[in-house]
Each structure stands twice: as C-alpha cells, then as structure tokens.
Amino acid sequence: MNKQDKVNALHTQVGQALASSRSAFFGIAIFTAFVNILMLTGPLYMLQVYDRVLASGSISTLVTISVLMAVMYAFMGFLEYVRSRVLVRIGDKLETDLGEKTFNSWMTQGLYGKAGQRHRPLQDVSTLRQFLSGAAPATFFDIPWAPLYIAIMFLFHWSLGVIGILGAGIIFILAWVNEVSTRKPMQDANALRIQGQEFADIAHRNAETIAAMGMKSNMQERWQNYNNKAAHAVVIGSDRAGSLSSTSKAFRMFVQSGILGWGALLAVQGIITPGTMIAGSIIMGRALAPIQMALGQWRSFIGARQAFNRLNKFYDIIPEPLENLSLPTPTGKLSVTSILAAPPTSKTPVLAGINFTLEPGQGLGVVGPSASGKSTLARLLVGIWIPQKGSVRLDGATFDQWNSDELGPFIGYLPQHVELFDGTIGENIGRFRQDASAEDIVLAARRADVHDMILHLPDGYDTHIGEGGSVLSGGQVQRIALARALFGDPALVVLDEPNANLDAQGDAALTAAIADLRKRGKTVVIMAHRPSAIAAVDQLLMLKEGKQIAFGPKDAVIKEITQKNQTQSASGKSKPLQPPQPIETSQTSQRVQMPTFSNPGPPSSGAKS
Q1: Rounded CA separation 72/96 (Å)
Q2: How many Å apart are CA 515 and CA 522, to the nearest integer?
Q3: pLDDT digits (tens, 9 = 90+) for 300-348
Q4: Beta 539-544 vs 492-496: how paired, if at all?
Q5: Boundary (domain end) residue, out of 540, 556, 571
Q6: Are residues 409 and 492 in the same domain?
Q7: How high is the pLDDT of residue 4?
Q8: Is the pLDDT of residue 507 over 60?
Q9: For FRET with 178, which of 150, 472, 507, 602 sits at 20 to 30 Å CA-CA?
Q10: With the CA atoms of 379, 385, 389 and 390 taken in that order, what torsion angle do they form, in degrees rounded to the nearest 10?
C-alpha cells in the first residue's frame, strides 16, 4: 500500500471509524514504548549477573538486582495487560460505531434482491473486531522498536550491530515475499467460500424441493466444487505462508545462536565481556521476535485488510439515507403517474406507462399473467423501489420525501414470498416493536381472522417461531403475516398474492379483512392471480407485459376486456376464450369474472366464436 493509498484509506468510512480511536492508539504506542524498554530487563540482568555478581561473588548485589528485575517484569506485565485491554475496547468501539450503520445498509441492500447477497458486511465488521482484539496489532506496534535493540547491539560492538541489521533485513524480505505470494490465493479462497456459502444457504431454504426431486447429491457435488476450489487456494496460500514462516523462524534462531557464537569469539579475544555476549544474544532474539510473530499473524492481517476494503466498497454502494422532514400522518391517497420502473440492479424496465389514482377507502385489484410486473408494482407502491421515471406519491409526497421510519407504521405490506422471523407470534404480528400493546396485537389478529387459530397453537400468542419453535403451514404463515400487515391500522395496505396458500376459510377471512379496511377508509391494493382475492375491491388494473391494459371500476374493466377478447376472437386474431368462471365468496356473495390474457395462436378451424 503506497502513501496515497494510505491517505485514501484514512478518509474511508471504516478509516474514519478507526481514526475516532486515535487517542487510544496513541496510548497503546506509549504503553508499547515502555514495554519494549522494559524488555531490556532480561539482557541487563544477565549482563550484571555475569559481569558483576559472578566476578565479585556478592550475594547482596544478586539479591538487589533480582528484586529490581522482578519489579520491572511485574510493571511490564501490567502494561502488557493494559495494552491488550485497550485493544479489545478499540475493537468493541469499532463494532459499536459501524454495527448499526452496517446493519441498516445491509437491510437496504436486501431490497436489491439476490444481488444483495454478494456482500457479508456484518461478518467483515466481526473480522475487524477480532483482529483488533487479538495479538496481531500489538505485534505490529512492537516492530518499530527493532532498530532500538539493534542500536544497543552496536553499543556492545559494531559487528554485533551489523549482524543484527543483516538478520532483520533478511526476515523483512521474507515477510514481503510472504505478503506478495499469499495475497491472491487468500483473496480467491475468500471469494469462493462466500459463493459456496450463498449456494448452501439457497439449498437449505429449498431443502424440500431438493429432497423431493432427488437433487441432494447434485447440489452437494456443486457445493463441494466451490469448497474444493476454496480449499485448494487456502492450501496454496497456507503452504507458502507456512514455508516462509518456518524459514524465518529457523533463520531467527540461527542468527540468535550465531550472535552467541560470534560474541563468544569476541569474549575469548577480550573485546567484550561474557555478560555482553549473553545480553547480545537475548537482545538479538528480541529484535527479530516481532518480525517473526508478524509472519505468524500475517493470515489474520490479510483477512482484516480484505474485510476493511470490502466494507468500504459496500458503504460506497449503499447511499447514506437522507434525514427527511417529518410529514403529516398519511390518509392513504395514492397516485401513480407515468412510471417507468426496473429492479435496482437492472436497466431493463419491467413496467412502463402506469397511471392511476386511488382515494382513501378504495380498493384496487391488480391482475395479469405471470411476469406482467405485479410484484414490481407492489414494491413501488410501498416505497421499496423507486421508479426510474414518473412518480409514486402518497398524500402528494414521493416516498423519498418521507422519513421511512416514520412512514413505515402507516404501511401494511404482505410480500409474495412470506417469512416470519425468529420470535413469538405476538412479536411477529407486532412488528417487533418494543411498545406494541397486547390489545393492538390481538386487534390486528382479529381483523385478519387469525385470533382463534392462534389460540389453538400450543402457547397461543407466545408460540415461538424459528429455531426450535413451532412449524406452521404455509397458510398459517400467510394469515399471520396478514395480521402483521394490518397491525397499527395502516393507511395503505398492499398485498401481493395474499391468498396463494389459503383455503376457502382463509379466502373468506381475507375478503372480509379487505372489506373492513375499505369501510374504515383505508386504501387497499391487491396483486392477484386467483379471482377470490379481488372480491372486495371496487377498482381493477390489468397489466400485460409491463403495460397498463385497463384501469377503472372493476365491473366496467372486466366488461371492457371481455368485449376486446371476444372481438379479437371473432376476427381470428386470437384463440377464442373459454367463458371466465365466476367465483362467489360467503362473505360478500359477489360474483367476479377474471378474463384470461392467453394468446397461444390462431384459432383452429373448428373453433366457435
């Protein structure tokens, strides 16, 4: 990393979070200075023992320097302890400073769909915390003190200092080679492990499909392929690091012993004393030890550096949320004007030219074949996605003008793919709000007509969902999620295929809930495949291939589309449609006809119009 890279790194968001602990790092540097000075206690003690105590035979001198040695080592141990505690707290502070921001950004990236799974920022924050709390930072703080020890060896004799410089230089070269040779294999291994973990997560979520169709061995083979490639890269990197670490360790011990031998030669010639010979050997070992330890910690350093870079890239991808001005409580008026929209990671529009307005108390059913853009429209109507052109406005304000935390309680949303979270049923319905009252939770459950169903569960509203909790059917999950959408009496409720897993009783409960919402002046939008979902709405929007085919009162739209189909069928432009089958619900006794959009080809010769 060159100087400019270091400057840029300090101005990144992670760099600024680390810079906020600048005073703590300065304190660690001071502690390190005292620790390394006190490291001279051992060599100086040996020097005094060999040159003064053994020469004079003075027991009192031995006792005095031994007590002083014990005090110095105790003080050094205390400073080491304080230094490690400070490093642990720097790691904790970094995780605290970045944790909330990282989680919020991670949730925001979740709106990007599957593309958001390429990053694991929470794991990267944990990696940085573990690195800062470990032994590696202290080792890197110790390395700059190696010249001090070599300088002291020059005071003993110039040749000892030269040997020290040569030894330190060679070990530094080994460290540089270690960095260059292991960087790419470790990066490749990390990327492959992330891909393998993502693949395993997807397989886990679809375990039923895999088991039913005998795909387990195929999926395992694919995962093993990722794992084998990652393991191969790790082996290459670890072998290189291990060989260089072993070489540097053996070389350090050789140099330390060589210093002892060279010192013995000088002592025999009377140039230095035997105590100096012993002290020089110890100091040489201390000078090279941090470099050797850094090689051993190099893998964790590389991991921390990769986490640092990934986090900064992740923060650059996710923009900082704006602090919008608080707006009045929404009433539910919804207007969509000439929107052109695509998923966040795509440039190909899936919706174009959609226009409609809904007043509070109106209910809109959105119908159309698969891939017509219904789910995309649902995400736009609740502010999850923002249109590329045009606007979606709630009470006159676009969603980027609302404060999302303040608006959220007034939005009810049931996505196409429903999941409940680890916790109790009551917590899930109450959206995990700390101030959610039991009365509001039960009210939402009653409005979704799931109160009695919940009471029949083992622990009622306290029934735990998630790891070790109760297993609910798809219909139960969908009905509880509907209650969650209705919690807090939201002004706008958007339901994406809310009856996909419901039986007749669930269908009736859904229709009643929609009718109740409209009666209380709420705006409701339902994306539907099954006709029963739109039994209680008064407006209908028909989509096909991302375009608006018709919008208006439900009966008028159905009549218009049916007439168009009949006209096209009579002219031979499309296959005659079978008469749409009406459905009837026990709650509303309202008959609804759903025309089809299929156009498989020209009519056969025997077709009747």
Answers
A1: 36
A2: 10
A3: 887 888 888 888 888 777 666 666 677 788 888 999 999 998 887 777 8
A4: unpaired
A5: 571
A6: yes
A7: 46
A8: yes
A9: 150
A10: 50
485 within domain boundaries: yes
State whether 386 and 434 are in the same domain: yes
Q: Which domain holds residue 89?
A: 1-135
Q: Is the pLDDT of residue 2 over 80?
A: no
Residue 239 domain-assigned (yes or no)? yes
In this structure, the answer to whether residues 362 and 445 fall within a common structural domain is yes
Give the largest Cα separation in the chain, rounded. 125
Whether residue 65 is found in the same domain as residue 153: no
Q: Which domain CATH number covers 240?
A: 1.20.1560.10
Q: Which amino acid is at 472?
A: L
Residue 520 DSSP one-character state: T
Question: pLDDT tens digits, residue range 554-601?
Answer: 888 888 877 777 776 666 555 443 333 444 443 333 334 444 444 433
Positive or negative, the CA dihedral 210, 215, 220, 223 is negative
* Residues 463 and 553 reside in one and the same domain: yes
Helix, strand, coil percentages for the chain (3-state, nearest 5): 65, 10, 25
Q: Is the dihedral of CA 494, 496, 498, 499 positive or negative?
A: positive
Q: Are 431 and 413 in contact (CB under 8 A)?
A: no
The answer to whether residue 487 scores a pLDDT higher than 90 is: yes
Q: Which tokens belong to 263? A: 């010192």
Domain end position, chosen among 100, 135, 170: 135
Among candidates 97, 125, 109, 123, which has minimal Cα distance to 317? 109
Contacts of 505 (CB under 8 A, 6+ apart): none
Q: Are residues 98 and 164 in the same domain?
A: no
In this prediction, residue 129 carries a pLDDT of 86
